[in-house]
Please model this.
Amino acid sequence: MLVASPSYLGDRDLDCPGQLDGLDGIFSRQDERAWTLSGPDGAVRTVALVPRYVSNEGAAILSAAVAGFGIGALPTFMCEKDLQSGRLVRVAPAWTAGARHHDDHAITARYVAVPAKTLPSPGRGR
Model:
């Protein structure tokens, strides 16, 4: 879904994709300049925004949208709380930006290999 902060939108009521061209965009790739939106009755429209902020981290895109950097495309689960609190509002709510790619990272324990010499040999006692 497309979202932006009320402070970025001001008095603009952005219901249609044509109203988005030339506005500030928060993108997930350096080479991204436009989104292809899907709308009612299978309509498709490409909108060209001006890159204002780029990050492949969904959390960073969310923070930039809340901070008023521009319009971001995020999955519902990421921005649901901010929409409910009023920190974000939907932009062109009848339209979606399709699947967006954001890198996910996990912190895991470091694997430490045990040298083969220290392992017990088959047939030897412990």
Summary: Residues 76-85 form the longest helix (10 residues). The helical segments are 6-9, 58-66, 76-85.
